[in-house]
Amino acid sequence: MTIAVGGWLERFLGRGTASVTVPPLDGALKPNSLLEEAQPGITVAAPDNLALLDGAPVWSSGAQLLRLDGDKPSPFATLQSTVTALACSDAGLIAVACENHGISILDRGGKPAITALRDAGKYSCVTALTFSNNDTLLVCIGSTDNPISAWQRDLLEQHRAGQLLRIDLKSGEVKQLANKLAFPNGVLADKDGSIIVSESWATRLIRLGPDGRMSAQLIEDLPGYPARLARAARGGYWLTVFAPRSPLIEFVLREPKYRRAMMAEVAPENWIAPALQSGLSFHEPMQGGALKQMGILKPWAPTRSYGLVVEVNENFVPIRSLHSRAGGRRHGITSAVESGGRLWLTSKGGDEVVTINL
Fold first, then answer.
1. Contact assessment for residue 245 and residue 343, using Cβ atoms and an 8 Å cutoff
2. For residues 171 and 189, is the Cβ–Cβ distance under 8 A?
């Protein structure tokens, strides 16, 4: 009864869970142009899912896996459909999830390494993978209600249908560690055996025990939607944020009748929802005078897409960030890895793999 009254009061006053305010980009998250001003990267269509294979970066583009051949990207494996998640083990195994074709395990040459992975083809909407050891794979299922291509719909329908699975590659045993997650979109096995998961729709990072029980909320109320995680050389972690939050989107998320009408009558690319890229059409929301005045982009212009990667220390306190702001092109940062003093980033919205000398 108390919870019901408290929820009604929050909606009436517009505060708490009913608030449409968004945390400001301040402190270590203060906007800059470091990401946008970095040297020219590698142009490739919708790069995604960066991982380190034998210390060298590999990534996906559509159904292909690519790695550097000199200074140019070279495909070394072609899968059945679009790659949605990727991870590499210390032993050189490559775990790949494909839309509509489940999970495959390849060797470092891109050839099948494990062919008897039980029920591997049934897994859909796989958003992230990581090896906790050479024989154990952790799998994030973003949603059991929507395909990964419908991630905007999943947010607007406010689903919490994500799962975290653990797969024993030797026995093929699959165990569900957690469910009812708000679109888990990044996973990392920590040194103490715990598991760090980013929940995009809950805009937070959480820590789970080896049994899948939540033990801590590491970061909450982020100003954007978190994606994949990677270790930083200084002992902390790199966290990518693939799209920004905004008061308009927060308001729409609290109006179910409007959302249903919008999704039924408006093309998905024009929904009031976060995006990996924006500014491509005048039909998009938040255009016109809200963005430009006399042809000049306003410094406070709202944006549906953004480029952001954050370094947090071992206590998950942000210590620095790199941005591509409104009007920039390096938006939709979905993954990052650090290797040899360089940070590699996939700008899925900007069709570019970006490297930054740290």
1. no
2. no
How confident is the model over 51-68, as pLDDT tens digits? 999 989 999 999 999 998
Cβ atoms of residues 83 and 48 within 8 Å: yes
Residues 134 and 89: beta-carbon distance below 8 Å: yes
C-alpha span between 214 and 349 (Å, rounded)? 32
Structural contact between residues 170 and 134, judged by C-beta atoms closer than 8 angstroms? no
CB-CB contact of 205 with 218 (8 Å): yes
Neighbours of 294 (CB within 10 A): 4
Report CA 268 to chain centroid distance, whole Å.
19
Q: Which helix (H) or strand (E) holds 318?
A: strand 318-324
CB 64 within 8 A of CB 79: yes
pLDDT at 101: 87
As beta bridge partners, residue 185 has: none
Handedness of CA 253, 160, 186, 21 (dihedral sign): positive
Separation CA 205–CA 275 (nearest Å) = 21
Q: Which of 68-77, 80-89, 146-155, 288-297 has the lowest mean pLDDT?
A: 288-297
CB proximity list for 11: less than 8 A, separation 6 or greater:
18, 254
Q: What is the number of alpha carbons within 13 Å of residue 84 lying toward its C-beta? A: 25
Please tell me the CATH code under which domain 25-277+299-357 is placed: 2.120.10.30
CA nearest to 48, candidates 91, 98, 89: 98
How many alpha carbons lie under 13 Å from residue 135 in its C-beta half-sphere? 5
Nearest to 179 by CA among 152, 144, 203: 144
Q: How many other C-beta atoms are found inside a 10 Å radius of the C-beta of residue 303?
A: 20
Is-contact 61 46, C-beta < 8 A? yes
What is the maximal distance between C-alpha atoms in the chain? Answer: 65
**Strand ranges inside 147-232, DSSP E:** 162-168, 174-181, 184-189, 195-199, 204-208, 214-219, 224-231
